[in-house]
Amino acid sequence: MARVPVAGQQPRVVAFGGGHGLAAALAAWRRITGQLTAVVTVADDGGSSGRIRREMPVLPPGDLRMALAALAGDEEREQTLAALFQHRFGGSGVLAGHPVGNLLLTGLAEMHGGDTVRALDELCALIGAQGRVLPMADEPLDLVARVETVDRDDPARVRTIRGQVAIAASPGRVRDIRVAPADPVVHPAVLEAIAQADVVSLGPGSWYTSVLPHLLVPRLRAALAESQARVVVVLNLEPQPGETDGFSPEEHLNVLLAHMDGVALHSVIADAESVVDRRGLLNAVRSCGAELLLAPVAEPDGAPRHDPERLSAALASVVGAR
């Protein structure tokens, strides 16, 4: 049975993901609780993060930086620092395209002998973060996927693609995915946060490259399987090109369930307007013993983005934090 938050107390929440999807979830969760831990993917190999991890033995900082910015305090100074973290250098030199926060995090981790968690904690304090940011593993990860091409005449219908950027850019449908190394080291702080959590949330975000990777790490999956936390999944508003082309909400859910391996699922949140086959999704949710909440969680203007206020209200209702 899932742990129930103590009445009158803020729930302890661990949110898994990366990139814009995790940032959206954090923007919603921070309206509910200050006891918030973001556990962030470390498999990014593109852009600034890719350049940094190819040149230095560090975790790719981009997704970690975005989570930091999403949790920044509300004071003017804190918001200014968060904007600085997100600012990308212009021009055409060696710094062009690098966000300031990526360089700050990388430099601070190097100062602390490669201790990224210590660096993240210090940056959280600097920007008055409403929670904590932790990496999902203590070493950089690579994603390796088998992708079925769209060309039916291709003699090699299924190809093995390595790297987050390459997977996202490959035309076709991802059939399965794994992380390399297969059993990376996970920081004790991550496992402790999971053990103490009242709620664990997955999604929204790039399904194969930001959401599923957490379930592919044996130590994370084992900790989740042992946890008494309520597990909440927020489904995407639409399929993502290159990863989940043509996926219905229930297909997203079924792919996730195939990777849970002993991890219980308690609640699924989906945008009411984005679900075509409501009965099909409801049946998929009920088949795994979970409950479905259909609610307006997208931006009111119709943009395919989650609205923080609306998503926060939906999350609060499923975890009893209204």
From TrEMBL:
Keyword vocabulary terms for this entry: Cytoplasm
GO biological process: one example: regulation of cell shape
Alphabetical list of Gene3D superfamilies matching this protein: CofD-like domains (3.40.50.10680)
GO CC field: cytoplasm
Predominant subcellular localization, coarse grouping: cytoplasm
Pfam families reported for this sequence: CofD
One term of GO molecular function: LPPG:FO 2-phospho-L-lactate transferase activity
Classification via CDD domains: YvcK_like (cd07187)
Subcellular location: Cytoplasm
InterPro entries reported for this sequence: CofD, CofD-like_dom_sf, Gluconeogen_factor
Cited function: Required for morphogenesis under gluconeogenic growth conditions.
Family, similarity comment: Belongs to the gluconeogenesis factor family.
Name of this chain's protein: Putative gluconeogenesis factor
Naturally occurring in which organism (per UniProt): Blastococcus saxobsidens
Organism placement in taxonomy: Bacteria, Bacillati, Actinomycetota, Actinomycetes, Geodermatophilales
